[in-house]
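Sequence in, structure out.
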Amino acid sequence: MNPQIEQLYRQGKFAEAIPLAQESLHAAQASFGPEHPNVAVSLNDLALLYQAQGSYADAELVRKHALGILEKDFGPDHPFVATMLNNLAGQYVKQGRYAEAEALYNRMLAIDQKAGGSAPSDVATDFNNLAELYRKQGRYAEAKPLYTLALGILEKMLGPDHADVATLLNNLAGLYDDQGRYAEAEPLFTRVLAIREKALSPDHPDVATSLNNLAALYKKEGRYAEAEPLYKRALAIDQTAVGPETQNVAGDLNNLGALYVEQARYDEAEPLYKRALTIWEKALGPDHPEVATSLNNLALLYMKQRRYGEAEPLDKRALTICEKSLGPDHPLVATMLNNLAGLYDEQGRSVEAEPLYTRALAIQEKALGPDHPNVATALNNLVLLYMKQGRYREAEPLCNRALAIDEKALGPEHPLVATALNNLAGLYKQQGRYAEAEPLSTRALAIRKKALGPEHPDVANSLSNLARLFHAWKRHT
């Protein structure tokens, strides 16, 4: 990628960069011929820009062309081919096309392993990429050994304090975070931050990423006072290092806004969300999935403030963007459906909410498999709707299934298991089945205390639920 195109890419100015990349491609074709490896390089650069802009169909077409050139020139097992497979697989992951991505990652791994000791860092990258894919699918037990293998290779090659080692540590910490193993995740996130500050400088964008990750962990644990200065420092770094109108800054604004929403500091959150939305729309255009996510965040804020009339068009626009750019069966479409359904549910519009929740569940099951935690979340949304409607017989098997999924995928002491237990206890309570509800509420409370600490708002919620249960039980005995 020539310096001018690279600079525009880093600034998020994809619409300006693409014509230049197309000119560069045409020049390469004229100079070297249509099947030369240099043409494949230019095609790859163009595909990167298309993908960043959300033009996945164009990116895929260009990448497959580049892959064909490299396979013809070097053979199917050359490291250059592996690199192109990696890029195409990464695009498939973004599109939620996990089975296609896995096949490419495995082919890439076989190529790099065949190369033997010539490129051990490539093998480490392959292990990491495959682990990241498994993590997205909730296949945590398969992801962990791959992270460990990759980490062992890079630590041996580069030493324990290299920036590339920090990246792998960060991913392993993210795995623990997903599993609710916060006590194991925190020291890894902290170590990553220290490595990056030393290896890259305290004001590097990767340091901002580490600050965001650690702050997000604190937010999950209800440690808001510790999270806020980290989010603010990350924002300050990115505004200086990469510019105030960049996607990095938009992400930082979104993170800080979400923290404020969690604390009901809505007046402080709204301008941050609006600024993030403006940046993303300017950088990526009005129909990019990142814009949809930003619209969704603002809609959730409005819903919490009961500004339903303002929230609904944002949710609908976000859903339309995702369906158009990612296809109707992408997991992000399911997220948008859930959010719009939640808005309807909040207003008592259950007839409109139910088909959206049902469609979201079907998408998650198809995209991620029937035993993914996101499926459990979709089931729980339907459970709560059915409970409001008094449809207890329909709710109970869904609630039990959600609990079983979370226990299997995340372990018996994850906060999401507590949520499922809390829902099942609430279902039993509404039916007057107090003796069945009590041990579930008690277990949910114990999980939340252990995982989140005694001062977390979810612990207070569990205590309140248990108190209401005992009060109702006493009244009926």
